[in-house]
Every structure is written in C-alpha cells, then in structure tokens.
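Service request form, structural biology core

Requester: graduate student, group of Dr. S.
Request type: structure prediction, single chain
Budget code: on file
Notes: please return the result as structure tokens.

Sequence provided:
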Amino acid sequence: MAKVDKEILVEASIEKIFGYINEPSNWPEFWPSLVEIKDVKSLPNSGYSGRWVYKMLGIRFEGTGEYTQIVPNKFFVIETKGGIKSTIAWTFRSWENKTRVTLTIEYKVPLPLLGKLAEAIIVKMNEHEADLIMANLQTRFMIANH
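Core staff response, request fulfilled:
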C-alpha cells in the first residue's frame, strides 16, 4: 500500500473546519480529482456512506466509501472500495485559535499491469494531489475569515 501524509494549519475553529470536511458533499470543492460524491446516507455512528467517482491518469474510477470511525471535532476514518481501495483519515487538533488538520491516505495503486514506473508516477501524482487538497482548504478558510 502507498501512503500520503499531509498536515496544515488552518485559520478556523476546529468546529468549523471539522464540520466542513466532515460533509461529503463538500469534498469535490477541495479535492481536485474527485469528480462526484452521490447517494450519501447518514450512518448510526454519525458518519456517512456514499458512492464516489475519481479520475486518475485520465481514467475514471468508481466505488463506495464508508466512515468506519468518527469522533466529532477530533478525527474520522473512511474506507473506500471499488476502483480504488483506500483508508482516508482526517485528524483535527486545536492550536492557538487555529486548527491543525492532518490527512493520511493509505491506498492500493489500482493499475498493477502498468508496472513499477507507472506506480511511481501515480504515487508522485497523489502526493501533489494531497498538497492541492490542503492548499485548497487553507485558501477556502482564509477567504471565509476575511
């Protein structure tokens, strides 16, 4: 499994940033390659399940995602299945009237037939994607606070 681990400091309260990221319908606003989230349903654990569409290397992947763990204003973990198998973990910590947001994604590269070179390219692309996700979140909350 490949792994991406990113952390940022956002100028927003933990409640505000958690509430925004915890809402699956918001994800396409800040996750560039995430094309669509649909059929979102609330779960008894206060999380969600739903279907997703994602584009990687111009290839369309579809699957499902479900919150497996959630502690409001602390963290949540999503397991995805289908075209890409992954574990997505978001963690939130208050720090001097700001929020430290950590995104950790462990995933199986979905294209085994393309070999190690393609895998290295995909891993690099996903690192860049994670940087964009975090930059988009920082920008969104910077604009919201001004």
